[in-house]
Every structure is written in structure tokens, then in C-alpha cells.
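Sequence, please.
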């Protein structure tokens, strides 16, 4: 088991590496499972309708993980979030994981926002830690502005 000092140094080193290498992304969320380090984030907070957001999943843990497709969207409507069906009935949600991510691996996923109007959105991505089969749904907010 690592002590707090070792974990702190490792975290600072990891973040410094991201900043130095130029792959710093916004809206970063960490998987709260047994100290596992899974990061899911977008490259920006705000997009125009002709842009394509890039979602990254970084498996900085010691466990193999998987993520489910497709991701889902929610749009903010006043104080609540409403699920948006952007894929239509022809796209089925696959309950089992088909996309595996090894420890240390980075996966990039382009997010299609075609047809979404202006507003605040969330993309939801399910990730499963295969060591204990615990699923965590990551939620990353972004805004679409068409002007």
C-alpha cells in the first residue's frame, strides 16, 4: 500500500506531465474506486456547431477497464437535465463492454454534436473496472454556441 506522500508525488508528476506535453484537457473526473486512476474529459468547454469534441479516457490505474458505447447526451433545461436521443431508434445501447482499455492506455473518442442546438450539455460515458466489475458513469459538461 502506498503512503499519502507517494500518492501525492505521483499525482503531481502525472499532472505536470500532462501540462508539459500539451494534452491538458478541461473538466477532468476521477473514478472513485479503490484508488483507481481513470480520467474522462473533453478537450474544451465550449464548441461551435461545426466542431467535433474529443473525449479522452485515460486508464492510469493498475486494472483493465472497459467503456460502453454509445455515450449519451443530456441538455440542461432550466434546473434539470433532460436525456437527448441523438442516435435514434436504429442505434442500440450495448449492455456489455466491448471496448477494453489496458493500464496506461489512452483512448480518444470523437463526439458527434451534429444536430444539437445552442445550450449546455453533458456527455455521459460508462466505465467498468474489470477487477471488481464496478461501473461508474462519468459526466462531462460542455456548451454549444453557434454564434
Amino acid at each position: 500500500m502506498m503512503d499519502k506522500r507517494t500518492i501525492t508525488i505521483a499525482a503531481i508528476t502525472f499532472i505536470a506531465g500532462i501540462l508539459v506535453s500539451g494534452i491538458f484537457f478541461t473538466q477532468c473526473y476521477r473514478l472513485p474506486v479503490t484508488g483507481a486512476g481513470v480520467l474522462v474529459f473533453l478537450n474544451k468547454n465550449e464548441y461551435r456547431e461545426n466542431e467535433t469534441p474529443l473525449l479522452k479516457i485515460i486508464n492510469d490505474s493498475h486494472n483493465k477497464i472497459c467503456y460502453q458505447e454509445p455515450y449519451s447526451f443530456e441538455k440542461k433545461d432550466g434546473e434539470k437535465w433532460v436525456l437527448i436521443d441523438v442516435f435514434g431508434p436504429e442505434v442500440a445501447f450495448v449492455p456489455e463492454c466491448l471496448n477494453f482499455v489496458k493500464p496506461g492506455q489512452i483512448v480518444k473518442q470523437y463526439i458527434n454534436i451534429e444536430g444539437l442546438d445552442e445550450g449546455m450539455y453533458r456527455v455521459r460515458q460508462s466505465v467498468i473496472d474489470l477487477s471488481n466489475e464496478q461501473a461508474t458513469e462519468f459526466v462531462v459538461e460542455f456548451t454549444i454556441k453557434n454564434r
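Residues 16-35 have pLDDT under 50 and may be disordered.
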